[in-house]
Write a sequence for this structure.
């Protein structure tokens, strides 16, 4: 379940980026109720995009900002409460990692869903039922 964290250069050190990303991973698993699930843990992946400061914009102008995007299958984090919980946790994580170098109102998040059957892992297309089965099998291991 890819997470994309986009930041301007010099906002977070490499170490702070890695720690924030690890905490975002934990937040996804926690909100989904899947902490410790081997299948899900291995498949929470992503990228940290660090851009030149002049290429991170709000209102058309450079700003110290962060963007967090989470991509999931349609079956994950579908309730308003789960979405809200992830967005709140993700915002807190990035705000804390930045240590005052970013305003909370300059942290944006979104959750994007892949349609049924459009989730691929290791060249295999998973339906929602396949994903649920893989998650349950990992829980039973």
């Amino acid at each position: 379940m890819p997470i994309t964290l986009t930041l301007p250069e010099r906002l977070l050190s490499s170490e702070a980026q890695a720690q924030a990303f690890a905490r975002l991973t934990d937040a996804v698993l926690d909100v989904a109720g899947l902490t410790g699930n081997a299948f899900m843990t291995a498949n929470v992946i992503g990228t940290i995009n660090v851009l030149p400061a002049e290429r991170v914009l709000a209102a058309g102008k450079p700003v110290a900002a962060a963007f967090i995007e989470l991509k999931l299958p349609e079956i994950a984090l579908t309730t308003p409460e789960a979405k809200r919980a992830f967005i709140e946790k993700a915002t807190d994580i990035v705000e804390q990692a930045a240590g005052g170098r970013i305003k909370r109102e300059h942290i944006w998040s979104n959750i994007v869903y892949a349609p049924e059957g459009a989730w691929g892992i290791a060249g295999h297309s998973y339906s929602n039922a396949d994903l649920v089965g893989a998650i349950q099998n990992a829980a039973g291991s």
Notes: The beta strands are 3-8, 46-51, 57-58, 61-62, 66-73, 107-114, 119-121, 124-126.
